[in-house]
Amino acid sequence: MREPAEDKTDVAMLRALGHPVRLGIMRALAAEPETCACDFTELFEVTQPTISQHLKVLREAGLVVTRRRGTQICYSVRPEGLDRLHELLTAIQPPRLAAAG
């Protein structure tokens, strides 16, 4: 049985992906790692402070990592976060029924 703290972490990850902009950010990062925060404003037509808040939620949920490149902060998908999501979704997937034949 999982500890309550682990459940809170799982819920935070799922909640983070529950917003269309954050899900879009994750998809964009999967296609192009090391993307700077300023690049997302053009993709989603939202302000820089809004993008920063979405990235903060994703970072705190353990789904993205940051790296400083000069004065810019660049983001990438955190593989361990995706591994945890995969484990979580696999654990709640019901067994497949055999095809009737």
Summarize, please.
The protein is an alpha+beta fold.
Topology at a glance:
Blueprint: H1 4-17, H2 20-31, E1 35-36, H3 38-44, H4 48-60, E2 64-69, E3 72-77, H5 79-91
Antiparallel strand pairs: 1-3, 2-3
Describe the model.
- This protein has 101 residues and is of the alpha+beta class.
- It has one domain (5-85): Arc Repressor Mutant, subunit A, CATH 1.10.10.10.
- It contains 5 helices and 3 strands, in the order ααβααββα.
- The protein has helices spanning 4-17, 20-31, 38-44, 48-60, 79-91; strands at residues 35-36, 64-69, 72-77.
- Strand 2 and strand 3 form a beta hairpin.
- Helix 1 (4-17) runs antiparallel to helix 4 (48-60).
- The longest helix is centred in the first third of the chain and has 14 residues, at 4-17.
Structural key phrases:
101 residues; alpha+beta; Arc Repressor Mutant, subunit A; 5 helices; 3 strands; 58% helix; DNA-binding transcription factor activity; ArsR-like_HTH; DNA-binding; Regulatory protein ArsR; transcription
Q: What is the number of domains?
A: 1
Number of helices: 5
Please tally the β strands and state the result.
3
Do you know the CATH topology? Arc Repressor Mutant, subunit A
Instruction: Give the low-pLDDT segments.
Output: none
Major β-sheet, in short?
A: 3 strands, antiparallel
Radius of gyration: 16 Å
Q: What is the strand arrangement across the widest sheet?
A: 1-3-2
Q: Would you identify the CATH architecture?
A: Orthogonal Bundle
User: How much of the sequence is in beta strands?
Assistant: 5-15%
Structural class of the secondary elements?
alpha+beta
The dominant shape is: elongated
The percent of residues in helical segments reads 55-70%
CATH class category name: Mainly Alpha
Provide the residue-averaged pLDDT: 90
Order of helices and strands: HHEHHEEH
Report the CATH superfamily.
Winged helix-like DNA-binding domain superfamily/Winged helix DNA-binding domain
| Terminus-to-terminus distance | 37 Å
